[in-house]
């Protein structure tokens, strides 16, 4: 079966003058795309690179593949992650990962939190501010954390993003508004153990493939921010623990929060869910990434999957089979497809 890979490479974009250093952080590397292609070959597929944007549209119009493996982040708007799947839906081309609605919804942190909270999933109290003045007088309890409203890959999140008072919050909101040109999510900071959970499947068949605890090597846990600086220096800054070194009952609660959020948002095939324990000792939903990074070395999802007993090739194969099963309406895997 021919599988077209939709992706956006960091090297294909040029940051604007004066843009923050992480402005292209969400885009993929050649190494990631090649790793996905090799895993597809190992699963008996024929990979074809399609890229993203206009080039993707031109190539699928000229010769549509049997399936699109979608890791394209898109460009330019808060609904950018929905661009490729929207084209696929319009042209009737099967594709992996979530549909346009779930992808667009999940990129907006406030819309995501409102949706999961409506389904009973615990998430920290928050506010959305569009000006520095709006950051004053929020009915939230310090410490707080400030983030760009619709960015991923820890863009905009620094060690200084955790703030202890109104003055520090004002400084952070001003920085984020200036650098990212979008509203800012301000939420109550959770200072307990931090986890990320990988979810595979769709609907009631979705399951947690593994949970990874992210433990700081430096400083106090209650101050820890899984920031851009930490991710870029992860070998010295954090420990990745699979399975987590926490009571089994707590880990099971984390798994349930991840599954409930995944289902509430209508995600499909795969996602990675960030969860952290709040002051009340209960796990809280932070964010979901329905287009999780798939670099086999540095990607959190591949890392936790491999350490949970699922090799990288099996992870990619599962995503393909999950998508193919949805599109064929049956239990057949992609290997039952002959071109």
Description:
By secondary structure, this protein is α+β, with helices and mostly antiparallel strands. The protein has three domains: about 1-95, 3-Layer(aba) Sandwich (Rossmann fold); about 125-190, Dna Ligase, domain 1, CATH 3.30.1490.20; about 195-290, 2-Layer Sandwich (D-amino Acid Aminotransferase, Chain A, domain 1). Helix content is about 35%, strand content about 20%. It contains eleven helices and twelve strands. The strands form three sheets. Strands 10-9-8-11-12 form a five-stranded antiparallel sheet, sandwiched between helices. Strands 4-7-5-6 form a four-stranded antiparallel sheet, with helices on one face. A three-stranded parallel sheet has the order 2-1-3, sandwiched between helices. A hairpin with a 4-residue loop joins β8 and β9. α1 crosses α11 (about 310-330) and α2 runs parallel beside α3. It is globular, with a radius of gyration of 20 Å.
> Strand order across the biggest sheet?
10-9-8-11-12
Share in β-strands:
15-25%
Shape: globular
Number of domain units: 3
The H/E string reads EHEHEHHHEEEHEEEHHEHEEHH
Q: Do you know the CATH topology of the largest domain?
A: D-amino Acid Aminotransferase, Chain A, domain 1
Tell me the radius of gyration: 20 Å
Straight-line distance between termini:
6 Å
Mind telling me the CATH class of the largest domain?
Alpha Beta
Task: Supply the CATH architecture of the largest domain.
Answer: 2-Layer Sandwich
With helices defined by DSSP (H or I, 4 residues minimum), what is the helix count?
A: 11
Largest β sheet strand count, sense and barrel closure: 5 strands, antiparallel
The counted number of beta strands is 12
> Could you tell me the mean pLDDT?
94
**Residue ranges: pLDDT <50 for 5 or more in a row?**
none
């Amino acid at each position: 079966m021919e599988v077209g890979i939709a992706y956006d490479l960091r090297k294909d974009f040029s940051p604007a003058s004066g843009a923050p250093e992480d402005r292209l952080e969400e885009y993929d590397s050649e190494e990631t795309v090649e790793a996905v292609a090799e895993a597809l070959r190992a699963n008996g597929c024929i990979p074809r690179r399609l890229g993203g944007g206009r080039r993707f549209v031109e190539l699928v119009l000229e010769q549509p593949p049997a399936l699109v493996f979608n890791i394209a982040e898109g460009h330019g708007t808060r609904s950018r992650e929905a661009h490729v799947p929207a084209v696929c839906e319009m042209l009737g081309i099967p594709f992996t990962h979530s549909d346009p609605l779930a992808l667009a919804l999940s990129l907006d942190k406030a819309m995501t939190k409102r949706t999961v909270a409506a389904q009973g999933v615990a998430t920290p109290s928050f506010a959305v501010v569009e000006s520095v003045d709006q950051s004053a007088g929020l009915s939230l309890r310090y410490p707080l954390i400030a983030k760009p409203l619709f960015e991923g890959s820890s863009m905009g999140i620094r060690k200084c993003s955790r703030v202890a008072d109104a003055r520090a919050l004002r400084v952070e909101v001003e920085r984020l508004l200036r650098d990212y040109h979008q509203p800012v999510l301000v939420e109550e900071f959770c200072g307990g153990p931090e986890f990320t959970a990988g979810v595979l499947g769709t609907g009631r068949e979705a399951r947690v493939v593994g949970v990874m605890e992210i433990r700081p090597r430096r400083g106090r846990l209650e101050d820890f921010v899984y920031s851009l600086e930490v991710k870029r220096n992860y070998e010295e800054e954090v420990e990745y623990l699979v399975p987590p070194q926490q009571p089994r009952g707590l880990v099971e609660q984390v798994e349930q929060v991840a599954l409930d959020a995944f289902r509430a948002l209508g995600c499909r095939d795969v996602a990675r869910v960030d969860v952290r324990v709040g002051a009340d000792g209960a796990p809280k939903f932070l964010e979901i990434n329905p287009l999780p990074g798939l670099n086999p070395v540095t990607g959190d999802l591949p890392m936790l999957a491999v350490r949970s007993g699922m090799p990288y090739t099996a992870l990619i194969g599962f995503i393909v089979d999950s998508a193919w099963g949805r599109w064929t309406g049956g239990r057949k895997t992609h290997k039952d497809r002959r071109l």
